[in-house]
Design brief:
heterodimer, A: 464 residues, alpha/beta, Ubiquitin-like (UB roll), FAD/NAD(P)-binding domain, 3 domains, 5-stranded mixed sheet, 10 helices, B: mainly alpha, Arc Repressor Mutant, subunit A, two-stranded antiparallel sheet, 4% strand, extended
Chain lengths: 464, 129
């Protein structure tokens, strides 16, 4: 295991955190996973059934591989939970620790799988005992013992805006800018703790581009909420309400028009042991290096297509860890990729961390020693909110996901709901930017038309 | 502890490519049925990490693109502490009154889209040129 800090993150205070009873150095605000990896802790969680070791693999809080109990709160993703001084985290759903979990014997005992449809059922003596044990083992985390006092707070009235933009990636930033230029009041919400999306890791363009774009938006008067993920869209009596999850609670927002730029979900390939710690999404690895000065491995295998492969190669070379092998992305998905990929990542090997991969191509089979596998998968659209709103989706071959069907201006089947970026299909940062601009303009037009109508209807009412 | 070489497609429920292929062999050939049978997509990720991988497995095993549809997405799309729902106002102010008040305030400020006065009956307001 060779993950290590290559430089301290900029302008961050050194602090101390506690994990599973041990104390570790960290930087304030950095993801818990980054701090732990820098100290050699890469097994952060265990899977629910076979208790396989899991690390932080997506980096966006979407996959649930790195769940930990933080300050008493269960099921926090170590990859998106920021460190604060004297923070206390623990492994959850283990006997022992995530590193050494006694329940990992399930993985070893049932190599051919554990069929919960039939197992332990119908056996008169075994069933009650087995059921008691299974009940004890199931469920995620342990609920906090202290009562949450938040229910006593004053209820929040809904925030009303002309245009709500969900997601501050390339498309969201562009949509917010154009909508604001058109005269709309704009709220931009981002689930991660800073705007930028794909730009943050610097694989597609300089991460400072995201900072410049954000600063410009703030100057223009766009309201930006980081750490704010949209979790639900309801439409009651024609009024659309979006619930935004922030650390302090749920905030209802009622936009006149909405631009969904929620991006997509990454994955780390389809090959045996694809869940080993040390196998991670390219964007996450890039963000760890660029933003947090944390090199996730010394000998990376890269699975990516150009131009991302080139950007990754340069990033790792610059960090002092030149890639040991670069494979096309299809190699990591060979078993399920359309057509016949020229190279195949046959398997990853290792105990609790990836130690080598086996690669197969026309020239033969090759064992590649490594301590990191970085996968730049085509992101699968995050369509859930769009479906809530009433949009339609269709299968999209490149990512294997479901993309939102949108018209040329980003309009969807849902009234005053627009979509752009990865959500409507695979796109480059430039394409996402262009799509965001079009959707932002259309949303502003729709919102301002509604606003005008509300003036008229009120004036008419006052006159009569 | 030695590990078994599994190809995981649903990391919350530890389902493998083999599990999905077994489903297909049993006659479950669409995402909804496979979800009901295996429980994939019912873990903490709610399908974010697995839906597109299961869809890929189905495609690669000969299921037609047009036969693929996602299962129903059920909010909240990220885990939310129940206390946060409890603190939401049960009777929020009605949209119309709120919107009207706000619209009035903006009218008083002389705000309007694209330099057109509010209330002017100009159909081109805010439209693309």
């Amino acid at each position: 295991m060779t993950a290590r800090r290559i430089r301290p993150p900029k302008q961050r205070r050194e602090i101390t955190i506690e994990h599973d009873g041990k104390r570790y150095p960290a930087y304030e605000g950095e993801p818990l996973a980054a701090a732990l990896m820098a100290s050699g802790v890469t097994v952060l969680g265990r899977s629910s059934k076979y208790h396989r070791p899991r690390g932080a693999s997506c980096g966006t809080g979407d996959c649930g591989n790195c769940l930990v109990q933080v300050d008493g709160m269960p099921n926090r993703c170590a990859c998106t939970t920021p460190c604060h001084d004297e923070m206390v985290s623990e492994s959850q759903n283990v006997i022992g620790s995530a590193e050494n979990d006694l329940l990992a014997m399930t993985d070893w005992m049932f190599p051919r799988g554990l069929d919960h449809h039939e197992m332990f059922t119908g056996l008169p003596l075994v069933q009650p005992v087995a059921q008691r044990i299974i009940r004890k083992l199931s469920g995620l985390g342990v609920l906090a013992r202290t009562a949450d006092s938040s229910a006593e707070r004053e209820p929040r009235p809904p925030t009303i805006v002309d245009v709500l933009v969900v997601g501050a990636g390339a498309s969201g930033l562009a949509a917010a800018e154009v909508a604001r230029e058109a005269g709309a009041e704009v709220l931009l919400v981002e689930a991660l703790n800073e705007p930028g999306g794909r730009r943050l890791g610097g694989l597609h363009c300089s991460p400072s581009d995201a900072k410049t774009a954000t600063r410009k938006l703030l100057e223009m008067g766009v309201d930006i909420w980081p750490d704010s993920g949209a979790v639900q869209i309801d439409r009651t009596q024609g009024v659309l309400e979006v619930l935004i999850l922030r650390p302090e609670g749920l905030f209802p927002v009622r936009p006149r028009a909405t631009v969904l730029c929620c991006g997509g979900y990454v994955s780390t390939g389809v090959f045996p042991n694809n869940d080993l710690p040390g196998i991670m999404a390219a964007e996450w690895a890039a963000r760890l290096i660029t933003k947090w000065g944390m090199l996730p491995g010394e000998r990376p295998v890269i699975c990516a297509d150009e131009p991302i492969a080139k950007a990754l190669r340069e990033l790792f070379v610059k960090a002092g860890a030149p890639p040991v092998r670069v494979l096309p992305i299809s190699a990591a998905y060979a078993d399920v990729w359309p057509g016949n990929p020229p190279e195949k990542l046959v398997t990853a090997l290792g105990g609790k961390h990836v130690e080598r991969v086996i690669v197969e191509n026309a020239a033969g089979t090759e064992v590649v020693d490594c301590d990191l596998v970085v996968v730049a998968s085509p992101p699968a659209p995050a369509f859930e909110l769009a479906l809530d709103a009433g949009a339609h989706v269709a299968y999209e071959e490149q990512s294997g996901g479901f993309a939102v069907r949108a018209g040329p201006e980003g309009g969807t089947a849902a009234e005053n709901v627009f979509a752009a970026g990865t959500l409507v299909g695979p796109c480059t940062v430039e394409e996402a930017h262009a799509g965001g601009r079009t959707a932002g303009e259309a949303a502003a037009t729709a919102a301002l038309t509604l606003l005008q109508e509300s003036y008229h209807s009120r004036e008419n009412r006052d006159a009569s | 502890m030695p590990r078994s070489p599994r190809t995981i497609v649903c990391s919350c429920e530890d389902l493998t490519v083999e599990d999905i292929v077994q489903c297909i062999d049993k006659g479950y050939r669409d995402i909804e049925s496979i979800k009901r049978y295996t429980g994939f997509g019912t873990g903490i990720c709610q399908g974010k990490a697995c839906l597109h991988l299961v869809a890929r497995v189905l495609r690669s095993r000969g299921i037609k693109e047009s036969d693929l549809a996602p299962f129903t997405a059920r909010p909240p799309h990220r885990p939310v502490a129940l206390g946060m729902y409890a603190e939401l106002s049960v009777n929020p102010p009605p949209m119309n009154a709120e919107a009207a008040n706000k619209a009035d305030a903006r009218k008083d400020e002389g705000f309007a889209g694209k330099d057109t006065g509010p209330g002017e009956e100009d159909p081109s307001v805010g439209r693309e040129e």
